[in-house]
Each structure stands twice: as structure tokens, then as C-alpha cells.
Design brief:
With about 260 residues, the protein is mainly beta. Helix content is about 10%, strand content about 55%. The chain has 2 domains: about 35 residues; about 220 residues, Porin (Beta Barrel), CATH 2.40.160.20. The chain has an 8-stranded antiparallel β-barrel with strand order 1-2-3-5-6-8-10-11. The radius of gyration is 30 Å and the shape is elongated.
Length: about 260
């Protein structure tokens, strides 16, 4: 008899536990749906996040601005910065969408070494070594629309998209230096001659910058509150910097840290 009572008691406890679990299941499911994850690997379909992005740029100039001489620049380079916002939508476990807006610096420097015959003070000619240098300060407001591709390795995602950059301001300073020791320009009394120094759009129309965007990121969730992701992006232009100088292109490589918060 005691054994039978024990069995009935166990059955009653199991049934009661099942009933309590069944009653609590809708609330648990609703709570799960309301959880706001910020790491992509923990997000749910329909999740939305805002990211704060900032970092440095490597600006790689292809050719360069039209030089004020019978010569052309080779490639140039420079370092800049960027800062802005990202708006991410998690579509499913493999795919998401991103709208990105940045303020960034695309400054770069171009150098051309050459030789030329210059007149000496006594009227004779002398072959001298010259260095033509153009320093370009250039700022854009850049926007892009991208797809986010979530890969098998945890936290790793790929970025592909298209972008547009809108010119804010810029400056072009072009100088020439005599690098042959002991020689100077008679007109200046030193080895530097200034050709141009002014706003970039004084020397040509700075158009809208259209580009293709490729990148990779690694997601590190920081709990329910946020996620931190280092990202690398390659922004490859399909338009020139200045209208009328089709050879001058400026690819930009960004290294960023993104702090992402869910909505």
C-alpha cells in the first residue's frame, strides 16, 4: 500500500510540474522574443541595432591631381580618419542589411621627381633635380548600403555594398623643391617655389564619389548590453575625384571599431 501511495504521489508531482511549465511557457517565449541581443550571432530575425563607428583611413591615390607642369604624378598616399553611425537589420541567421553614414578625411600627398634645366644668375643653364609635391586635404560625408553575410565561424561576417561620398571641403597645395644641394630659385631666394594653394574646387568640380564596398568584421558580444566589432573595409571608387581628370582615383581602406547597441 505504501508503495502504491508513493507512486501516486510521484505521478501527482510530475503532472503538477508539467502543468506549471505549460502555464509558464507563453510568458517565457514572449520574454525570449523581447530579448535585445546585439551580437550578430545571438540576434533574432527582425533585430535592429545602432553602431558607433570610428577609426583610421589609409588613402591610396591612383595617379593624382593635374600638376601645374608638363609632368604627371605617380601614385600617392596618406592617412585620415572616419567617424559615424551604422544602422543594422538582422534578416536571418545568414544575412543582414546595413545603412552606414560617415564623416571622413581622404587627405593624400603626391610626389614627382624630375630633372630640368634652370637658368643660373649668370645666364647659364644647369640641370637640377626637382621634386614636385601636391598635398591634398579632402573631407567627405560618405554613405553606403551593404549586405552583411554571416559565416560559419562564430562572430565572423562579410560586408558587400555600394557607397556615395559627398564633398564637404578640401584644399590643394602644390610646391616644387630644388633637391640639388646649394641651389635656390632666384625669384624666392630659397629652394621652394609655390604654384598653387587654395580650395580644391577652385581647380575643378569635385563630383559625387561613387564606390564599391567590401569588408570583414569579427563580432564580440559584450552581454545583453552591447557588442564590439573590429572591422576592415575597402572602399573602391568607380568615379574620379575631380571631373575632367578621369585618371585620379582615391581608394580608401578603413580600420574601425564598432560599438553596437540594440533597439
Amino acid at each position: 500500500m505504501d508503495t502504491r501511495r508513493r507512486c501516486l504521489r510521484i505521478v501527482h508531482i510530475v503532472l503538477l510540474g508539467a502543468l506549471v511549465s505549460l502555464c509558464a511557457w507563453p510568458a517565457t517565449a514572449q520574454a525570449q522574443r523581447n530579448r535585445v541581443w546585439h551580437g550578430f550571432r545571438q540576434a533574432y530575425p527582425g533585430a535592429i541595432a545602432i553602431g558607433l563607428s570610428g577609426g583610421g583611413n589609409l588613402n591610396v591615390g591612383i595617379n593624382g591631381p593635374a600638376a601645374d607642369c608638363n609632368c604627371a604624378y605617380d601614385n600617392g598616399n596618406g592617412f585620415g580618419y572616419h567617424a559615424g553611425l551604422q544602422f543594422d537589420i538582422f534578416i536571418n541567421r545568414y544575412f543582414g542589411l546595413r545603412l552606414q553614414g560617415l564623416f571622413e578625411d581622404h587627405s593624400s600627398t603626391y610626389v614627382k621627381e624630375r630633372t630640368a634645366d634652370l637658368y643660373r644668375i649668370d645666364g647659364g643653364l644647369e640641370e637640377v633635380n626637382l621634386e614636385r609635391r601636391s598635398e591634398v586635404s579632402l573631407q567627405y560625408i560618405s554613405t553606403s548600403f551593404s549586405a552583411l553575410w554571416f559565416t560559419g565561424p562564430r562572430g565572423l561576417y562579410l560586408i558587400t555594398g555600394v557607397g556615395a561620398g559627398f564633398y564637404v571641403e578640401g584644399n590643394l597645395k602644390e610646391e616644387e623643391f630644388i633637391t640639388t644641394p646649394g641651389l635656390t630659385y632666384p625669384s624666392t631666394g630659397n629652394n621652394v617655389l609655390l604654384y598653387r594653394d587654395g580650395a580644391l574646387d577652385m581647380y575643378g568640380d569635385v563630383g559625387v564619389r561613387a564606390s564599391l564596398l567590401f569588408g570583414v568584421g569579427l563580432d564580440f558580444p559584450l552581454g545583453r548590453g552591447a557588442a564590439l566589432a573590429p572591422e576592415v573595409q575597402a572602399d573602391i571608387p568607380i568615379t574620379s575625384v575631380v571631373d575632367g581628370n578621369a585618371d585620379w582615383r582615391l581608394p580608401v581602406f578603413r580600420a574601425s571599431f564598432v560599438l553596437r547597441f540594440g533597439l
